[in-house]
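For the sake of clarity, the format in which proteins appear in this thesis is described at this point. The fold follows as a row of integers, each naming the local backbone shape at the matching residue. One such record is shown here in full, so that the layout can be seen directly:
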Amino acid sequence: MTTTLTAINEAVLTEALTGLTSTPQKSLSPWLFYDELGSQLFDEITALPEYYLTRTERAIFTDHADDIFLALGAAVTIAELGAGTAAKTGILLRAATRFQPRVLYQPIDISPSALDAAVASMSVISGVRIKPQVANYITEPFHIDRLPQHKVLALYIGSSIGNFSPIEAGSILCNLRRHLQPGDALLLGTDLAPGAAKSVETLIAAYDDAAGVTAAFNLNVLTRLNRELGADFDLTAFAHRARWNARCSRMEMHLESLTTQTVHIAGKAIPFAAGETIHTENSYKFTAASLQELLASSSFAPTHTFTDSAHTFAVTLATAV
């Protein structure tokens, strides 16, 4: 099959070939999940009974949104990395309009369809002006506008930071910090490590739901490579796997090859042994100490931390220093 590559496809091809030829572990970057169908499937995941993260963070916002803006103590311009459809962000935007008459909201995301949905849902909030930006904030330049006499409040919520290794997460926050001035703020959502309040079994269920939506989300990355790159992955020859890695304090998602096989991408033959996996996602779980270390290393100082009553999830407000 011959595929004409766009600039976006070129980025997908580079990532696919780099990751799938890596040794000793094949991998694919999680940003590849988020084509139109992937974004839709992720929204379905967030509503699943097993996936506690979204509803817990939403409840924290509902309980503490006013506290967050009181703590900021100034008018803010809001920018959001990896906004997606911004399903929870409306809670924060409505709270912001209780403290200032107009709010500029800048959602940044790789998925145009997700941003379209965000614009449609946020446009009904009186006083909010939306300036969306299609960008892969990990690999591409992005910008944040600032209104006169306003702080910037950067949102990085949904435990998105957990998808990256500690080094990568620090790099993302350092890059964000370069867009901010001292006194600006970051609101960071992080899932907490298992312990007395949350079992490993609860974690695994959140990434391997009974309805199979997360499995479909994981396998869709192969569908994307077939469609955009002319690859020949047989989806029935791969299976979704979710694993807890206690040593690294992270959930892992893999796609396991069920047989010995060879896949072709852009003329490149990629061999798979039976049982070999493609590592598609990490979701790091934080302790108070690891969160403090991450923020300090990227020039942020935490000022307030909000959690649910069971201490399974944290929303941290930090100041750029």
About this structure: The longest strand covers residues 238-245.
